[in-house]
Amino acid sequence: MSLLASSSAASILSLDALVDMSAAPHSEDGPRGSRLNPEDPLEQCRRDIEDAFGFARLAAWSFDLSSGRAEMTDAGLAMLGRSRDASCSSLDGAFSLVHPDDRARAVAHLTEAAALNRSLDDTFRMIHGDGTLVHARFRGHPVTDTNGVVVGFRGIWQDITARVTIEERLRETEENHRRALELNAQIPWTAAPDGRILEGCLRWSLLTGLPAESAQEGGWADVIHPDDAEAARAAWARSLATGETFDFDHRLKVADGSFRWMRSRAVAWRSDKGDILRWYGSLDDIDDRKVAERRLRASEAFSRSIVESSGDGIAVLDLDATIRFVNGPAAALDVQGIGDVVGRSWLDLWPPDVRAEAEAALTAARSGLNASLSTHVPTPAGAPAWCNVAVNPIKRPSGEVQGVLVVARDVTDKHMAWLEAEAAAIRLAEVLESTADGILTIDRSGCITYMNGNAVTLLGKRLKVGDTLLKAHPAYAGTPVHDACLAAFDGFPSTMTNLFLPSLGITVDLNIRPTRDGVSIFIRDISEALETKRAITRLAHHDALTGLFNRARYTAFLDEHRSAGALGIILMDLDAFKEVNNTLGHVAGDAVLVAVAERFRAAVGEQGLLARLGGDEFALALPGASLDDCVGLAERLLDSLRGPIRVERHDVRVGVTIGVSHVTTKRLHGTASKRADIALHQAKADGGRRIRVYDADLQRRIGARQDLKLDLASAIERDELFAAYQPMLDIRTGCIGAREALMRWRHPTRGLVSPVEFIPIAEESGLIAEMGEWILRRACREATGWLDGAVVSVNLSPVQFQSGQLPKKVAGALADAGLPPSRLELEITESVLLRDSDDNLAILHALKALGVKIALDDFGTGFSSLSYMRNFPFDKIKIDRAFVGDIGTGNH
Questions:
Q1: End-to-end CA distance of the chain
Q2: Does the pTM exceed 0.70?
Q3: How does pLDDT run across 634-650, given as a tens digit for each residue?
Q4: Strand, coil or helix: 643
């Protein structure tokens, strides 16, 4: 059945000469070799055309639309791998050779060309006899009848399989290239020899957000970072001028306004003559790499800072021991003083006696093992340094050793601390052995693990190291010491004091302390300490010299008997005791006090509480006693000292002045001691060596005395004092040779106050020094007006010697008054020489050096001695009346 209908069915198409020429078969590889026949030019022409068709892979064809007949030359059939048979002679058979996917299009094109009287030119895939595809290009012209109706087509077709294959490969290559460019992060570009950008602007435009034309017009450098633009232009200009490869890193401003690091590279393409034809380049985004490099550098700097700040010396070695890196502290490794150790052998750093050990550690590290050495090495400073050195392999991921890491730690301080700890342990052992305590340690099984020397001394006959307490002494179980040890095992320390150990006959203090391994027991023998404490307690309440109770016990005794109704207080003060100390010495004075205490104790017996309050003061407290009892005891005490006391071949006589008070109600107990003191002072004022009992009249007299004392303090300011003069006759001439200045007080209300009243008050209150200076100045000033030029005599108090300023004050008084020193005589009493005799003698010599006269007054009283005249050359000695009163009437 015909595929195409035709109105000219009667018309029969032939290929004419073209079909005839292609009647001879052709091989697929091309035409056979031409057989020239010079006798047949037509045949030769036919052969030439056949060869040309063969070389071009061309074949003739024709279609008769009215008959449905198709014809193809043998060459065409051969190119399709087909034989001439009925299937190939029809139009339907011809179209069956077209690939099914192209067949409809082929029929449509033929129908359309027939309808439009148009030529055919189309490409279809044909099916080769072996099943492969043959790409064929069909070209043909329509054949019409006399009426111009298309009745068929005739033309040629060409096997273009090779060309299509090449074109497909080319398209694939171009597509691969395009894909590669699209996937490549680099932006390729080309430039003319003069540097004008030719291609690559589109992706550059997408990157920068600028029009592509701006790159072609030279604007590519405008988006380079200002800090990089000038150098980039210069590098590009240099490459254009020299033809050298352009390779430059710079920052490029991208579409979002940020800058990214880019690498621009370009290589020149030259002609055979060496001329530059074009520049091929690429723009590579290296921002991530730059960031990574910065981070790497920061990481390296950070790591280096850690390594450098490490207190350990760190070194990296090659496998041959060559040092490749050292940190700062690794300089400590340079004990040989090499200097810069990088590049040197690590083994060279060690002294010969350590090198073998270092080399063994290095060998172990090379074999993949960790090694170490601890040693001491000399330093350039001379002192040895102790170090621990770790020598470890540096391995690749495969496990292969590629280097050695050395970490050296200076442990000199640690080693010295260890040595110190050793020394401390020795010292501790020495301390434990030298301490007065007995020390033993017990483990948790109760076994004694240590005993110091004192523990052995205390317990050695009963216990020894290695003994178990319960086995050695079963009776130990359940005792307080055993219970305390069990508590210490649980972490609770305990202290036991005043524990008497009958088996040892001693009293001890125990300190039981938990330790890591058990307990430590500290045993202190306090037997002697207790005895000493008892002695100290006794001393705390007794006078060490006399054995009597002391002031503290006396005061406590009064507090204890506040509830008693009646209370008597007797206060005693020895008379002339200071002279004993000054003449015979303090040892003799102490002996006198002991003897006095014995006599007082004998006189008192068991009554009350007898105490020495200090110095030469004694007291007797009599709770519940009557006034008569108190007076009776006072008289016995007074009488106990009437006889002499034998001291160092001397018979010493001392008396006692006694003050007595008695209260009948506990409300007055607080005043009893004060009243007795008032009575004592009144007894002294009355001359001493007597008893005075406190009464109301005595209180009034004491009050008046206090008032007089207050008035005396301001007498000088109110100009109430004046000087009276007692003339002294020269029995040889009968003339007045001197006048003694006597201080007098005219009170505004009392009138003239007797010196017997106010002089003792002045001496007690300390006013005597100020008053003595006043009378000295007044006497010197008034003596300058005496016409007879008599000497003025002024008495000095022992108190005036105490400041050491007496010579200066005397010199000032003479100078202010204008009195010659020879007209001044200073009188002293024997007591000045009895107190601080050396210092006072020095003051007397200083006064003598001023030119004044020195007189000794009241010689013959107290402890007078002619030796005074040997110690100081007095100008005058005034002998007391009591010394010479009985001359001529006595027995001596």
A1: 205
A2: no
A3: 999 999 998 899 988 88
A4: coil
